Structure formats: structure tokens, C-alpha cells
Amino acid sequence: MQEPISFFTGFNPNDLWFLGEAALKTLWISILSITVGSVLGCIFGWILHESRFAGGIILAPILDVFRSVPLIIQLVLFYNFAPIVGLDLNPFLSGVVILTFYTASLVSNVARGGIESVDMSMRRASRSLGLTYWQDLFHVVLPIGGRTVFPAWIGVVLGVMKDSALVSVLGYVELLKASQILITRTQEPLLILSIAGVFYFALSYPISLYASRFEKRWAK
Amino acid sequence: MIQIRDLHKHFGDLHVLKGINLDVNKGEVLSIIGSSGSGKSTLLYCINGLETIQQGTVHINGTDVHAKNTDINKLRQKLGMVFQQWNSFPHLTTLENVALAPRIVKGKSKEEALELAAKQLKHVGLGDKLKNYPVSLSGGQQQRLAIARALAMEPEYMLFDEATSALDPEKVGEVLDTMRLLAEEGMTMICVTHEMSFAREVSDRVAYFHEGIMEEIGPPQQVFEDAQSEHTRKFLMNVR
After folding, report:
1. Where's the ABC transporter domain (chain B) (predicted)?
2. Chain B partners of A132 at a C-beta cutoff of 8 Å?
3. Quick one: pLDDT at residue A85?
4. Among candidates B48, B80, B45, B60, which has minimal Cα distance to B151?
5. Among A83, A147, A152, B32, which residue is least crowded by beta carbons within 10 Å?
6. Does the residue A112 lie in any domain?
């Protein structure tokens, strides 16, 4: 009797490394997009607040597109159409670009809300002390407004971290894609998706933990 | 000195100030009284350039506040302002609240700024609250903090915009006492106020504003006892 050829092999400890590495890639793509996207979002938010023309007429509709079109569609469209205009980006960079703009579009409204949460009277008081427009913005509006919208920003961060899973459709092997590969090989979706879930949780939980610590400290 | 000439201010169709002429000399305490919407507060905002003006001039020590080439941030260091809302910076301790502007605007070192801040806070009677955050202070204490914060820039003039109006009645006294103290020390002050006893006892001159016009100005005795304008007499009758 000939041994049957096995297409599938069971889950082994090495696969945990494979998933761990993929989790680091998820972390890396998230850190990059969230950092750049948040800085960009703050600048956009400031423009939305300050300029009726540049903000209201030009920027706001563009940001609305990024906020409203499902991320998966943005990724596929960008990845496939960017080469037409000569931007030959690999899946990783395409993912970073789209996730960055997606983050920026979400953060821009958070940032605008933060700026507007600081009372006109407060800003006048700081200007009356001789602070310039920029000194007022960085020393008064940023710390006060920033604290107000910090929980909303953390919400965006956690959301983007999970949404980064969609970059897998471009073939970039991050946590979700790695899980799919292992599922195909082992035929054990329950186990592997559970492990992937634990990894996602391990990435997100420290952030919410730190966030609530900050909030508690500020509340004093 | 502060010189205001033919000052007009519009908010859209609303003509808020209709040609104000006013000189305030060094060392003088001027109280401005009048009903709400008479343009008193707007005048203060025009003096330190927080509001633009449509006509006329405001000069501080000979410098035109609203001229394009005036460094308004530098000029504002001469003009301390205290608002109706006390506007403490909630993320900073009282000490840091006061030290912020000297540090970042005047470029003082951190130690120097903190030392100055402690001195000013003691001056307004908050010497025991240096490490407190504003949220733990009463309204009256926060308003005194605002006064200390303005004083830390070592201004030549102080503008008070209804500094006691948002306070609980029992906290009004401590803020007025601090203002009295400043007046006694020779600070030049313009106080928009509804506290008639303060206007009467502390001011060198009292001005009455009615619908954007300065209808009456003179020593308190004259304004309170022998007002020339009909509106002033009516107003004073109602507030007493």
C-alpha cells in the first residue's frame, strides 16, 4: 500500500514565529501610517479651521472621499492605477500611502474639533499676554485641545491598526495574510484565527491601557 | 499714555463704537460704566488690538496700535488684560500659568520665570497655591491668578473687562481688593465694571457709555452726584 500524499500539514510551533513576524509587519505599517497620517491630519485640521476657501472648498471634499470610500476599494484602486501615472509602488508602500491618507482624513476632523474646543476667550487671553499666533497655537491650543480630543484620536489609532489588515488584499504578508496562508496549509481556521486575534489584541491593548493612564493623570 | 481719537467700530451692520475720544494718563484709574451692549468691553479689545477698528486711532505711548507695521505682540506686553471669564490654562499649575508668558514671550529662563511667577502669586494672595491646578481653585482665586498672570509680564497698563461679573457674589470682594491694591500701587488701570462702589471709591475718573457714545466723563463725585446727561442719571438711578 502506498502512503497517500498529504497536501496539508498540521500547525507547528514554527508557525507561531511566522505569525509573530507578520504581527510585527502589521505593527510597522500601522506605526508608519498613523504617525505620518496624524501629523498630516493635524495640519489638515488646522487648515479646515482657519481657511474657508482652502479648507472648506478644496480640502474638505477630498478628505470626505477618503473617509467615505471603503478602505479596501481605495487600496485596490490605488495599487492598480498608480502605475498608470508612473508610480510603481510595491504592496507595502501602496498600503502605507493609502492608510496614511485614510488616517489623515479621520484625524483632520478630530484635530479641527480639538482646535475649536478651545474657547475664543481663552485664546484672546493668551494673545493678550503677548503670545504670537503660533505660540498660542503650540503652547495653549495644542495641549488643551489635544487633551480634549485625545480619546477620539486613540479611537482612530486602534481603528487604523485593525483596518491595516486590509492591506493583505494587495498581497502584503501582514498578520491577516499570514493567517490565511497558514489556514490554507493546515486547514485549521479556528485555531489560527484565534491566534491572530490574540496578536491583534496584544498590539491594541497596551495602547488603550496607556491611553487611559494618560487620561487619568490629566484628570487630576 | 493711552490716546484714543475718533474711534469707530462696526460688527457688520452694528455700529458699536461711534467716535470715541479718550486720553488715559499714566497712574490714572479710569472706570467705565454703562449698560450691556454699550461698547465698553469692545473699547478694551480695540485698545490692545484684539479687535480691528474701522476708523480712528489708538496710540499707546505714541505707538499706533492698529498700524500695519506695529509689532502688536510686543505692544501687548505693555497692556495686561483680565477678562470676565478667568481663562486659566487648565493643563498648568498656577505657578506655570503665570510663568508661561514670561518664559516664551520674553525669553526668560525657567528659574527666573518661576521665581517671578511665585512673587506675583504671593502678591495677589495665592502664595499657598503655587502647585495647585486651576480646577482646584475657586472662581475668585482663578481671577486673582489671571491678574497675577497679566502682572508677570510687567505691564504699564491693566485693562479689566468686567473682572467680577462671572463670580459668585461672595468672591467679588477678594478680586476687588486685589484691584484696589494695584490702584494704590500706582498702576494705570481701565476697568469696565458694574461695581459702582469700586468705580466711586477707587477711580480717578468715571466714564459712562451709552449705545457706543461716551456720554459722560469726570471725577466720580461729579458723575455720581451731578451727572450732566439724562441717560447717566437714569442708569445710576437703576443700579443703585
Report:
1. 2-236
2. 73
3. 84
4. B80
5. A83
6. yes
Residues from chain A that touch B133, judged by Cβ atoms under 8 A, are 220
Identify the burial level of B165 via C-beta atoms within 10 angstroms of its C-beta, where 0-12 means exposed, 13-18 middle and 19 or more buried.
middle
The domain ranges of chain B are: 26-49+71-239
Whether residues B76 and A129 touch (CB distance < 8 A) is answered with yes
Q: Is the CB of A130 less than 8 angstroms away from the CB of B76?
A: yes
- Smallest Cβ–Cβ distance between B105 and the set A130, A144, A220 belongs to A130
Average model confidence (pLDDT) across chain A:
91
A69 belongs to a structural domain: yes
pTM of the model as a whole:
0.85
Q: How many domains does chain A have?
A: 1
Query: Domain containing A91: what range?
Result: 20-219
Q: What is the CATH superfamily name and number for domain B26-49+71-239?
A: P-loop containing nucleotide triphosphate hydrolases (3.40.50.300)
Q: How far is Cα B44 from Cα B47, in angstroms, rounded to an integer? A: 5
Half-sphere exposure (Cβ direction) of A39: Cα atoms closer than 13 Å: 5
Extract the residue ranges of chain A whose pLDDT is less than 50: none
Q: B81–A125: do the CB atoms touch at under 8 Å?
A: yes
Parallel, antiparallel or unpaired: strands B55-60 and B188-192: unpaired
Torsional class of B56: left (φ above 0), alpha (ψ -120 to 50), beta (otherwise): left
pLDDT at A1: 61
Q: Give me the CATH number covering residue A85.
A: 1.10.3720.10
